[in-house]
């Protein structure tokens, strides 16, 4: 199946109350693991690429071609969206779309509302002309997302009326309101703003996105889905599964030198972690 945008998959997820996972791509092994997990679960899936990993993986075109080739090679038949995660500028979003990404996030949440709306509208117009989808962010989600760091002091919860205005004026396909989730490991007990989540969904009518899915208790994830969260982003948990498998293998085989020998168990660990999340999100069998 060809790559698709997120629009249809998120609309359906919102209607039927489940969530589609966005799993971040870091290298070839992650791409294989996530695609195979989605296919095995017959689930729609979103491959997220953060800005920091674009140069690491050889640029936007390399990533887009790698994903397309792998999908053909692995005979992937479930819907897959290739999504730029936290695009910080209009230019980067356009470059991703030109390279064949089918979805972009424009994260202008550090700007004041009117400027956020302005840049998000421009990205949305360009993306929609190409049949691609757009995610916007309001408020600031704390923590570390690859190289993007947002300090706690800078964090703010999204304001429902501002979310409604942004949704109305930009025409975005989904919205990530900051409501207390963090990127990277949680320090202490996460406290998500569920009341606001429900209100924002009602006011905007949009599928909501929950960033910082790693380390969140299952009940919180299920509650978020029941309130209209239709996309959940996962990165750190998969990084931990990958690295733990490599660490174990190298401790048990200190003489090992062929990377395949430790990448294969690492890839299997990511595949198992992704399958477990897909089941938790309720998206198994929806592809
Ligand atoms: P985690 O790394 O906390 O899972 O967050 C991922 C994310 O939100 C990507 O945008």
Topology of this protein?
Elements: H1 7-16, E1 20-24, H2 28-41, E2 45-50, H3 53-56, H4 60-73, E3 80-87, H5 90-98, E4 103-106, H6 113-129, E5 133-138, E6 142-145, E7 148-150, H7 160-170, E8 174-177, E9 182-183, H8 194-204, E10 208-210, H9 218-226, E11 229-234, H10 236-252, H11 259-281
Parallel strand pairs: 1-2, 1-11, 2-3, 3-4, 4-5, 5-8, 6-9, 10-11
Antiparallel strand pairs: 6-7
Task: Give an overview in words.
The chain has 287 residues and is α/β, with parallel strands linked by helices. It has a domain at 7-135 and 221-281: TIM Barrel (Alpha-Beta Barrel). 48% of the residues lie in helices and 18% in strands. The protein has eleven helices and eleven strands. It has helices spanning 7-16, 28-41, 53-56, 60-73, 90-98, 113-129, 160-170, 194-204, 218-226, 236-252, 259-281; strands spanning 20-24, 45-50, 80-87, 103-106, 133-138, 142-145, 148-150, 174-177, 182-183, 208-210, 229-234. The strands form two sheets. The protein has an eight-stranded parallel sheet. It has a three-stranded mixed sheet with strand order 7-6-9, with no helix packed on it. A hairpin with a 2-residue loop joins strand 6 and strand 7. It is globular, with a radius of gyration of 18 Å. The mean pLDDT is 94. Bound molecules: 1,3-dihydroxyacetonephosphate. Residues 24, 48, 85, 145, 183-184, 211-214, 233-237 line the site of 1,3-dihydroxyacetonephosphate (13P).
